[in-house]
Amino acid sequence: MGVSEEEREQDTENILKEIVRENFPHLVKEIDPQVQEAHRTPNKRNPKRTTPRHIIIKIPRAKNKERILKAAREKRVVTYKGAPIRLSADFSTETTQARREWQEILKVMNSKNLQPKIIYPAKLSLRIEG
């Protein structure tokens, strides 16, 4: 999210490779950031909206996607041509809502350093030391 609309539509497939090169040079040697499909959403641009449309990128290997997203979380500030952008997984509406419902519980557990995480399908895991 946040990639300028000036980027040509046919270049959306190359954007991921440029983001990985710019932000995670160590990953370039380890993975080949191949793109199966890439497009902006929604299809038509709304002239009233000032923010750029999101780019949805489908990566053929789930492991590569997870490594890129993990590196993005660790780096915290990801850029594209010097401008800050955000990388995130594209979840269904139902999954997003289910994750949102856990937020308060996870926040409390994090504050107590319990290291919670949600494991598919709907299991909660936490770590207690001591």
Task: Provide the fold topology.
Blueprint: H1 12-23, H2 25-30, E1 37-41, E2 54-58, H3 62-75, E3 78-80, E4 83-85, H4 93-111, E5 117-119, E6 123-125
Antiparallel strand pairs: 1-2, 3-4, 5-6
Give a description of the structure.
The protein has helices spanning 12-23, 25-30, 62-75, 93-111, and strands spanning 37-41, 54-58, 78-80, 83-85, 117-119, 123-125. The chain contains four helices and six strands. The protein is of the alpha+beta class and 130 residues long. It is globular and about 55 Å long. A two-stranded antiparallel sheet has the order 1-2. A two-stranded antiparallel sheet has the order 3-4. A two-stranded antiparallel sheet has the order 5-6. β3 (78-80) and β4 (83-85) form a beta hairpin. The protein folds into two domains: 9-85, L1 transposable element, RRM domain (Alpha-Beta Plaits), CATH 3.30.70; 93-125, no CATH class. Helix content is 39%, strand content 17%.
The CATH H-level homologous superfamily of the largest domain? L1 transposable element, RRM domain
CATH fold assignment of the largest domain: Alpha-Beta Plaits
Terminal residue distance: 41 Å
Q: Which percent band covers the strand fraction?
A: 15-25%
Helical element count?
4
Number of domains: 2
Q: Major beta sheet, specifics?
A: 2 strands, antiparallel
Low-confidence stretches: none
- How does the overall form come out from the CA principal axes? globular
**Integer average pLDDT:** 80
